[in-house]
Amino acid sequence: MIVVENLFKYYGEYPAVRGVxxxxxxxxVVGFLGPNGAGKSTTMRILxxxxxxxxxxxxxxxxxxxxxxxxxxxxxxxxxxxxPLYTDMKVSEYLKFRAGLKGLGWGTRRKRIEYVLERxxxxxxxxQIIGTLSKGYRQRVGLADSLLADPPVLILDEPTxxxxxxxxxxxxxxxxxxxxxxxxxxxxxxxxEVEAACDSVIIIYQGQVAAEGSLAAVRERYGNENLEDIxxxxxxxxxx
Amino acid sequence: MRPTLALIKREFxxxxxxxxxxxxxxVFLLVTGRLFGVTMNLLTEPGPRGTEFPMQALLGDEKFxxxxxxxxxxxxxxxxxxxxxxxxxESLMTAPIxxxxxxxxxxxxxxxxxxxxxxxxxxxxxxxLDMDATTWQPRIDYWPVVTSYLGAFLAGAMFLAIGLxxxxxxxxxxxxxxxxxxxxxxxVVAAFWRPDYDTGSLTTKLVNFISVPEHFRRDFTRGxxxxxxxVLYATVTLLCLFLTVRSLEARRLR
Lengths: 240, 254
Known about the structure:
The complex is a heterodimer. By secondary structure, chain A is an alpha/beta fold.
C-alpha cells in the first residue's frame, strides 16, 4: 500500500533522510519510531505530499506522490504533527470545509461528517469554536479530518503527543479500531503504545532505517528484549 | 472544482469572522463618503467653479489613493502568511488540491470581498448621474461611471495580486501588509510630484504609464478606456498570481 524506495531529502546541505526504503502492506498498522530529528516527520511529509523528496520514490496504492500527487493524496488521510487547525471556525464548519476541499459530494459530505463526529467522540463539541477546545479535542478534530474522505491509508504524525493518560488510552483504542479498516503509518515516542496497537515497526535513526519488521520478528532478532531496550540500543543512546 | 469552491467559501466568510474586514469596509466608506460630499459641493456650486466630471472629483483625487493604498494589503495579508505562520498550510497543501487551485481560491475570495467593499458606493450614483426621480434615467453621460468602476476593479485586482504574492513569501501578516504597501506605493506615489516634472520628458511618460491615480484622473473617470492601463493591470495581476503559484511550489522543495 505504501512503498518507499531509497528516499533522500536534503535541507540545504543537511541530509534529513538518507536512503529510506520500506513497504507497508495493505491492512497493516505500522509504528514509525525514532528519536527526535531522525527524519520521521520529513518522511511522512514527503508521503503526504507536503515536501518533495530530493531523490527516490514513494507511492501510495501504486500512485507516485510526485508524479500523480492529487490521486495519491486522495488515498491518504494525513494528520500533521501538533495538528494545526483554523482556530476561528466551529468544529462542524471546519469539517464541512475540509470535506469540500477533499472533493466529497454534498450527500456523502453530510454522512461522512456525522460518521467522523461519532467515531472520534466529537458530537458534544460540534458547535464549539476550535480555538476554545482543549488539546485532546483538537487532536481528535485532526483525526476526524483525516478520516473524512474514508482514505485507505492513514498517516498520523504523533497522534498522542501532549495528551493525558486517559486521552492516550482512548486514542489508542480508536487507532486499534481504525487499524481494522485502514492501512496505517503512525509515528510516536510512546513505545508501549506501539506494542499495544501496531502489527509491525520501522525504527529510523539518522535518516536511515535501523530495523524493520513485525513486532515479534524485531524482538526475536534482538534477543527478545523489550522494545524500549531495542530502541535505545539501535539509536545509540545507551548509557546516557 | 469542488475543492476550489470550498476554499473560496471559507476564505470569503473568514473576512466576516475577523474585525479586519469590517474595519477596512468602514475606513473605505468613510473616505469615499467624504469625497462624495466634496463632489456634491462641487456639483451644486454656482457659477464656473463646478466640475465637469463628478467621478474625477471622487476617484481622480490623490487623497483617495493614499488611503486606498492601505486597503488591498489589509485584505490580502492573512491569506497565505497566516497559514504559514500557524502551520495550517500543511493540512491545506496535503489535501487533494492543486497549487494553482489554492491560489485561485484565495485570490477569488479576496477579489469578491473587494467588490463587496465597492457595492455600498453604488448608493451615490443617483446623485452623480443626476438621475430623474420619476423615470430613473440618468440625465448626464453615464459612461464615465462605468469606466471608473471597471478601472477600480482592474486596479484593485492588481493590488490584490501583489498583496497575495507577498503574503505567500512571509510568515508574519504585519510584514506581508507592509511589503505589499511598499510595492503598491510604486504605482501610486509617482503622481504626487506630477507638477514638478517636465511634461515632455521621459520621466513624465514613465510616471504616466505606471501611476494609477493619474490613469484615473485623466482617463477612467472621464469615460476613456486606455488599453495601455488595462494591459498593465492585467499583466501585473497575472505575473503576481503566477509567482504566487511558483512560490507555493518552491516551499515543497525546500
